[in-house]
Amino acid sequence: MILYFTGTGNSRKCAGWLGAKLEEEWVDIVPTMKKGEYGAFQSETPWVFVCPTYGWQAPRVFVDFLRRSRFEGSRQAYFVLTCGGEIGNAGESLRTLCQEKGWEYKGAVGVVMPDNYLVLFSPPSQEEGDKMLERAKSQTDKLAAMIRKGEGLPEKRSTFFDRLKSGAINQGMYRFFIKDKAFRTHGCVSCGLCQRLCPMGNIRMVEGKPHWQGNCIHCMACIAHCPAEAIEYGRRTRGKNRWHC
What is the mean pLDDT of residues 155-171? Predict the structure, then answer.
């Protein structure tokens, strides 16, 4: 079974590719998570977990969901992390999670997708993004073949800088940088799509306008999917094109 978490759709796309190749069900955890619930899952085939990379780690909310959910059947766990460049030392914490859950850790691999973290980076053009998706699709086909054979995923050896990024820098980003006070709207059409798509249930519509409630994880779902491009994050996102998969 494939379980995935997504904000702007990159990880959903990746999970779908893997699901088609492996002939496996791919399940979005967000509806369950938004209810404040945890899951109970059963699979005789290996678990494949697909998620974005936040600060060179798997998202904390995703890891917490896996830690608190119940899994029966297979004890093998694969992790596929979509990213804008690389995943640092994310595999180490996922290996620890597997030890806690009694799973056999089969590796964590990054799949480079169009970078959509508008707060710091500019997404690619549609043409560049489509080329990146082609390369990512080819990579996931290879990963699916490895998973089908029960092989471990090919991980690169972590460096000091990988450990720094996934450790101290990740912690600093969550503590000081990942906030929602800078979100603003202009030209909002009051469609409410941002509220419906926010995986944290962090957006509340007040008099037809979105208000962020202080529980943001910077998934960029709201800003990337806004049909009117009415959402900005301070000055950091002005003039940048939006990307969602």
Answer: 95
In eight-state DSSP terms, residue 217 is -
Find the mean pLDDT for residues 83-98. 97
The model's pTM? 0.95
* Interval 174-233: pLDDT, tens: 999 999 999 999 999 999 999 999 999 999 999 999 999 999 999 999 999 999 999 999
14's tokens: 């990746």
Taking the C-alpha atoms of residue 5 and residue 194, their distance in angstroms, rounded to an integer, is 17
Q: With beta carbons less than 8 A apart as the criterion, state whether 79 and 41 touch.
A: no
CA distance 16 to 85: 21
Q: Domains (ranges, CATH) in the chain?
A: 2-173 (3.40.50), 179-232 (3.30.70.20)
Q: Residues 177, 52: contact at Cβ < 8 Å? A: no
Sign of CA dihedral 28, 225, 81, 62: negative
Mean pLDDT for all residues in the chain: 96
Residue 109 in contact with residue 77, Cβ under 8 Å?
A: no
Q: Whole-angstrom Cα distance, residue 112 to residue 128?
A: 13
Counting Cα atoms < 13 Å in the Cβ hemisphere of 100 gives 13
Phi, psi at 3, each rounded to 5°: -115, 135
Paired residues of 212 in beta bridges? 203
